[in-house]
């Protein structure tokens, strides 16, 4: 809430990224069709709604003071087709992995360092929520899904990972040290 997570995810410039994702004709129609120039048609839109960022747990690495946070991200896209004004609803789901660790400074204090944040390979899934899709639109939607699954990882890494970084920076170093101590105690009890 404090970081306006849903609002920031909803403001991702999805359509701009899709239009720039390949060597296509300009505009959404050109991107969907790949060759036609339909200047007389209305521009399409893609709005992100229902953003959900779910914490999937923190794993501690074998390396001391090294952690991985697993986060699932889901959102809906309302795609208004420019050539017939139909609205197609999709749901996107993917998993993010964020590495972070504690590093001692020159005074022996531990600071939290955020490392790599990325979308897990092959975790991006698109589901069409609209049931009554005209058959003529299906080839366009397949192209949309394929391009979306190529664009989303980079888009999320460039626009959502900085948000994740801000959220993780709120973690207390003492809490992480406590997690490490609990993990060590648990491993010793298993011996």
UniProtKB/TrEMBL annotation:
Organism: Bos mutus
Protein name, as recorded: Lipid-binding serum glycoprotein N-terminal domain-containing protein
Organism lineage string: Eukaryota, Metazoa, Chordata, Craniata, Vertebrata
Ranges of residues in domain Lipid-binding serum glycoprotein N-terminal: 6-171
PANTHER family noted in UniProt: BPI FOLD-CONTAINING FAMILY A MEMBER 3
InterPro entries in the cross-refs: Bactericidal_perm-incr_a/b_dom, Bpifa3, Lipid-bd_serum_glycop_N
MF terms (GO), sorted A to Z: lipid binding
